[in-house]
Amino acid sequence: MLTIVNGVTSKQVLANEIINLLETMGLDGYFYLGYPVLGGIDGKIKVDALLVSEQTGIVLFDLETLAEENMEDKIQLLDELYNNMEAKLKRYGYLSKRRVLQVPINVLSYAPLYKTKSDEICTSIEEVKEYLESLEWKQGEEYYKKLLEAIQMISQLKKRGGRKNLQKASSRGSKLKAIEDQISCLDKYQSKAVIETVEGVQRIRGLAGSGKTIVLALKVAYLYTMYENKMIAVTFNSRALKGQFIQLITNFIVENTNEEPDWSRIKIIHAWGSKNSEGLYFNFCKANNLVCYDYMDACQKYGRNSSAFDRVCEEAVESVTNPQPLYDVILVDEAQDFSKYFLQMCYMSLPHESRMLVYAYDELQSLDNKNVESPEDIFGYSNGRPNVVLDNSNGKAEDIVLSKCYRNSRPVLITAHSLGFGIYRKKEAREETSLVQLFEDKQLWEDIGYTVKEGVIRDGEFVTLYRTEETSPAFLEDHSSIDDLIQFRRFENNVQEADWIVEDIEKNLHDEELRYQDIMIIHPDPKITKSYVSHIRVKLMEKGIKSHIVGVQTTPDDFFQEDSIAISQIYRAKGNEAAIVYLINADLCARGINLSRKRNIIFTAMTRSKAWVRVSGIGDDMDLLIQEFNSVKERNFQLEFTYPDKSQRKNMRIIHRDMTQNELRDIRKSNSNLADITSKLANGEIRKEDLDEDTVNRLKDVLYN
């Protein structure tokens, strides 16, 4: 099957003719429009179109829309395309044998207005067909996948983790290298997300580990090379993402153009910012002469809670009268962490005639129990019509779902979803369903790669969901047994827990050939992380193993260090990944108030892992999580549940809603007052006749109607 990827082009009519032809020829591979950009001695060369196929090798297309013939210049252009592509591919040793490139490079100009033709200049679509049918790549089966890796620049990812000097074939280090080597190409949905460009809003949804951050970095590099006069901004919530974006964007641009990025055209900035550091919110407020709030100012005005940033964004959006454009393109990672007001702010910061906004998210990774609203609700209406409607039927992918998970194995991902949703949790009093949260959009289950095995996803119906190798590749789990991939452990106290974790880390470093950067320890509660991990840090130091608390001993932008184990609270862990993840004190997330937020913490922590997960905690609450894990494990990592109806979902959202400290204080005070009244009535200190009749009736109405 041929995948068509529509990039930036001014030659859509000729491109459509080529696309229509290719779709009749039964080729397998990719046809890229407006991709790639080749870096040469005399500067960048933008390729009109590129065919990469197992049958033909590479075909570089020049699409000529003019009638004026200059054969000498045309042949020189085709030669430059060939020479620059050859130079690019020869940098990848795995595409050559004894210095001979094993990939055929073909160049073709389609010039329907020309009167003169040649072997490489076609004046009709029939001639293009004849040319393509004459091509044959005998080594295609052996080299095609490697060629895609080079064309898509995925080899640049591998520069981060060149694992050398591995001595044991069965060590975790060797297994991890094998996993990393398997992830060599973008899938068709990732390719579309990177290259397909719309003059408006584009939404990218995907699971944790589906490549959203890499896709956005590649997209920045692509837009940078295609639009030389546009200012591009990338923004996010987790500050540790900044280093990742800088590294990835640099590698991709250098690989494409042989030039270092011009950072005056690319802004990698945190969403908020402060008086001393750049942020999208601060830049917006300054440009529009609005009051700017840093974190302390926001907490002082709106309270010290997770909604403080939402409130200052809301104030800014509602205060601005004539928003000034700040950038030409904005890309937002971790959009599930932001309110609609921040996305509106991004939208307002773009030129009115071309609001190029790309936002990517995974709803279950929200640690503040936010749900990303529909584009219509986020961006509002004008004259009764929505400002933004996402439509894939116009030939461009405006709404993309990345369904394939390349980080987490099937058992890890399904366990994370099981605990995150509370699939096998025992429901408590007042609860109508065991689930603590659920996707609002039923179709999203299948969009993110689940398949219905039994039943149907419908209110009140029983359903069984599972994942296939198509969306959860087998190589992510085949390297280790289930009991090694995932372990849940209960301890009597945190000293026992620390002893077990330190012993396991020592083994992983000394015997299993893992590096310090392959290990991450996550604690669910930022308020007590520093004190809780003290036993672990002391015991690691006694073993000669350094550790650091991210954002305490280091800056928030620096997560991993070459000679130190990263210990992080959950909010700083987001956006990062490691081979083995230790989620400690997980019992805090088993039950209680704000349960949907707590379960999101479990999901987010577990999905940081590229291979192995260790979940540990204290006491009976940890047993509850172990029981849930055993339930999904016994069902061979399938999700079996009765889909809650509308009433049950309402009950679920009320009970497990995210509550502020003020709300919790009010609830505790109200419960205490009710308990006091009940006790006095039972003891005869007051009689029911003493109570105000109107108040009693109103209470009855609220409780029972």
Automatic annotation (TrEMBL):
**Annotated GO biological process:** recombinational repair
* Boundaries of every UvrD-like helicase C-terminal domain copy: 566-615
Which UniProt keywords are present, listed alphabetically?
Answer: ATP-binding, Helicase, Hydrolase, Nucleotide-binding
Q: Which InterPro entries match?
A: DNA_helicase_UvrD/REP, P-loop_NTPase, UvrD-like_helicase_C
Keyword check for ATP-binding, yes or no.
yes
Any Pfam family = UvrD_C_2
Q: Name one GO molecular function term.
A: DNA binding
Q: What is this protein called?
A: ATP-binding domain-containing protein
Give the source species: Blautia wexlerae
